[in-house]
């Protein structure tokens, strides 16, 4: 709304109309600033928590699935599953530590 052009150019004959238009413009700018979405605080913390959870689940479940597939094809049950689960946990915690040590103003 704040980027709209006025319907008419101020002609300076009636100062009350010009003053009213200026006040309306200022009120629109204040309202736009007040209604602007906030991306700091709780939203950023929620995103970081979701990212940590996804890293943990992805690493562990990924290691389980890959280890199970290796065991099925190679016939090494349960060693492929255990080794890949262990590697998945290591990768998950490495990603969590990397995310936690990142500065708050860095973007993904």
Q: What is the H-and-E element order? A: HHH
Number of domains: 2
**How many whole angstroms does the radius of gyration measure?**
29 Å
What is the number of strand segments? Answer: 0
Whole-number mean pLDDT: 84
The major β-sheet equals: none
Task: Quote the beta fraction.
Answer: under 5%
- Poorly predicted sequence stretches spanning 5 or more consecutive residues: none
How does the helix and strand content classify structurally?
mainly alpha
Summarize the structure.
This protein is mainly α and 108 residues long. It has 3 helices and no strands. It starts with 14 loop residues before the first helix and ends in a 7-residue tail after the last helix.
Characteristic key phrases:
2 domains; 71% helix; mainly alpha; 3 helices; rod-shaped; 108 residues
What does this structure look like?
With 108 residues, the chain is mostly helical. The chain has two domains: 36 residues; 60 residues, no CATH class. The longest helix is centred in the middle third of the chain and has 33 residues.
Secondary structure elements and pairings:
Blueprint: H1 15-35, H2 42-74, H3 79-101
Helix pairs in contact: 2-3
């Amino acid at each position: 709304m704040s980027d709209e052009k006025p319907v008419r150019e101020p002609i300076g004959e009636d100062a009350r109309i010009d003053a009213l238009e200026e006040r309306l413009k200022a009120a629109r700018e204040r309202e736009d600033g007040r209604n602007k979405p906030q991306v700091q605080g709780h939203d950023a913390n929620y995103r970081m928590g979701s990212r940590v959870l996804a890293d943990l689940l992805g690493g562990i479940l990924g290691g389980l699935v890959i280890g199970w597939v290796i065991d099925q094809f190679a016939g090494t049950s349960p060693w492929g599953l255990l080794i890949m689960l262990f590697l998945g946990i290591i990768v998950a915690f490495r990603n969590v530590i990397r995310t936690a040590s990142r500065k708050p103003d860095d973007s993904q």
